[in-house]
Amino acid sequence: MARHLNVTQLSQIKAFSKPLIANLAKLGIASCQGLLLHLPLRYIDETHVTAVRDLHMGESAQVEGEIVHAEVTYKPRKALIARLEDASGQLTLRFLHFYPSQINALKVGAKVRVYGEVRNGFFGYEMVHPTCKAVGEKSEVAETLTPVYPTVAGLGQASLRKAIRIALQQADMHETLPAQVYAHLDLPSFKASLIALHHPSPDVNLRALDNKITVHWRRLAFDELLAQQLSMRKHYARRRSVSAPQFKPSKQLVSALLKSLPFALTGAQQKVALEIERDLTQAHPMQRLLQGDVGSGKTIVACMAALQCIENGWQVALMAPTEILAEQHYRKMLSWLMPLNIKIAWLTGSQNKKDREAALQSIASGEARLVVGTHALFQEAVRFKNLGLAIIDEQHRFGVHQRLALRQKGQPEPHQLMMSATPIPRTLSMSYYADLDVSVIDELPPGRSPIVTKIVSDARRDEILQRVREACLQGNQAYWVCPLIEESEALQLATANDTYTLMQDEFPELKVGLVHGRMKPSEKQAVMAEFSAGHLQLLVATTVIEVGVDVPNASLMVIEHAERMGLSQLHQLRGRVGRGSAKSTCILLYQNKLSDTARARLKVIYESNDGFVIAQADLQIRGPGELLGVRQSGVPMLKIADLERDVDLLEAAKTMADALLKNYPTEVEQHLERWMSSAGELVKV
Ligand code: ADP
Ligand code: MG
Q1: Backbone dihedral region of 218: left (phi > 0), alpha (psi from -120 to 50 degrees) or beta?
Q2: Which terminus of the chain has fewer CB atoms gathered within 10 Å of its CB, N or C?
Q3: Picking from 50-59, 327-336, 587-596, which range would have the lowest pLDDT averaged per residue?
């Protein structure tokens, strides 16, 4: 039987003051276990003193000596400059911001110990803003490397270090899981790892420590990954124990729909449609993520699932993150389902009262078999007669709570189909998405010619304008995407309006439209409908067109300030062209001069049309937060483990999770308690 895990609350520790506890709470630390797991960002080595003569450029070092010169200069700017001398030479200390107390501490004759990075200055080596302390006759050097922790304003490193030292003395550090879990991975104990990471001995490799590849980091990363796997598997098991309506495979509607289409399904579409069909016959709720690159044809697959549900007498909800996209789905569903005599309701926040009342009424009575809409779908007033399936397009745009709300609209729990065009790299789907089943459409419909991507300096704008003119005069349509201005929505709007005016002046012979996020939904829809119908040739747009918009005749896209956008976002935008059979081009305009990272990122987009490759690069460049989108609200993020660096540990954790759940349920609970308590309550996804 496993020993009980003692979760000491911070308030139980006498040495901790109320303000300290309040500050720790800001860091998300509520218990001693949480404090133990608050690990250093990096370390500084104050375990020995380096002679000035032995300093190296770019390295951080501790130096001790006497101040032989000190002055406050005003040119070129205010600075406190001091010179420190030891037996081997002199070093300049430079402060651009300083307090009177520092002037005092660095008086000529003061004996100080400083720590900082060595740089080449005007008078030889210098340190800018080193940490300084006065030294007495027999000051000792530190015995372990000094940890530097993530912190908040008002909580200094010294207080945090002290609090953690106390936690290391008092907190329960016993092993939660059986020893064999760690034995074959050759990982050290929990306790030894914590001590080694909070107070590393001076002989460890600082670089390995900073890169989190020591065995002690690996032990904790593994524990964290294991906790994530265990909690995801628990969710999965919970779902298997809940009941859902069972739908027999469709006998009529699906084949009638397929017969009416001008195209045949691709092999990949057939494969995923079958996976979904099988899920819907089960007595527990499906939670499947349908993943497929932009243009891979997810909508028709979703429609087939909807028909299976409808044929069995249940209702379907189809939710999209924007009005533009919801409207487009609505029209598409009308064209596919009207011939089958299936009534569809339409629900958005911007409807007038009368239409809304009518929609609500037909949803409640069950007359509407399919409901298409935006967030408006999960509002309180919406009551379904019998919701059997909720389909969520562009799922990463919705928060966990929103999806949960829709799920609660059915009794018993409805099946859920989530769709995403942002491919999830393998490591992400193994970790954050481990509670979902995933189907992948890994093939595009035939006859699409690949999009040609060009990267062009903004200096060549005139040529690009000429190109837009020619394309439009030849009967094609084009998008002009305005720069993303994250800092200010107002500025973004102004830029879009300016661009629109400029384009109208530039192209008197073309019909130009404008669509942006602040327009009324009805205005947006009107513009999109005009563009869709071919009445507008050029559409000036903000990134609102990023998701799902499908206008096959549009074959040219220009994206301004492409270097400001995320890779997956660029890929989504670019996916708005190349949807028909015409040869399509996407021109990425950049502002001189590109940084090296910006150049590397644009190169990825230039070289690849494969959403998976792009998402993988995005994951490496920006971490999982961006790809997870709002999903991360409610799902604890990994703090220690890195999916790429620790992929072997992730695989090991995944392999072990099921057996642990089965054979060691009590131990698993304790492990989760230790690792999840600091992350807040896990929302059931
Ligand atoms: P996405 O996966 O990006 O949501 P859509 O479902 O909007 O893609 O499909 C993109 C376009 O391809 C639509 O116009 C759709 O009708 C069309 N399409 C879907 N499947 C096929 C297919 N098997 N063959 C040809 N065209 C298809
Ligand atoms: Mg889509």
Answers
A1: alpha
A2: N
A3: 587-596
Using the mean position of ligand 1's atoms as its centre, give its distance from the Cα of residue 554 in Å: 15
Model confidence at 366, in pLDDT bands (50, 70, 90)?
very high
102/107 Cα distance (integer angstroms)? 9
Q: Which of these three, 84, 109, 141, is where a domain ends?
A: 141
Where among 115, 141, 167 does a domain terminate? 141
pLDDT at 632 over 50: no
Pocket of ligand 1, candidates 258, 266, 291, 300: which has the most ligand atoms within 8 Å of its Cβ, to mutate?
A: 300
- 394 and 329 both lie in a single domain: yes
Token output for 620: 């490496």
This prediction's pTM: 0.73
Is residue 341 domain-shared with residue 424, that is, in the same domain? yes
Same domain membership, residue 512 and residue 470 = yes
Ligand 1 pocket, residues with Cβ under 6 angstroms: 263, 265-266, 269, 292, 294-300, 421, 445, 548, 550, 552, 579
Q: Are residues 305 and 369 in the same domain?
A: yes
The mean-pLDDT minimum among 182-186, 361-365, 507-511 falls in 182-186
Least confident piece of the model among 278-282, 409-413, 477-481: 409-413
| 644 — pLDDT class (breaks 50, 70, 90) | confident
Distance CA 213, CA 208 (A): 5
Looking at the CA of 302, which ligand is closest?
Answer: 1
Whether residue 190 is found in the same domain as residue 299: no
CA separation for the pair 414, 30 (Å, rounded): 36
The DSSP line for 427-493 is HHHHTTTTTSEEEEE--PPTTPPPPEEEEEEGGGHHHHHHHHHHHHHTT-EEEEEPPP-TT-HHHHH
Q: Which residue has the higher pLDDT, 276 or 614?
A: 276
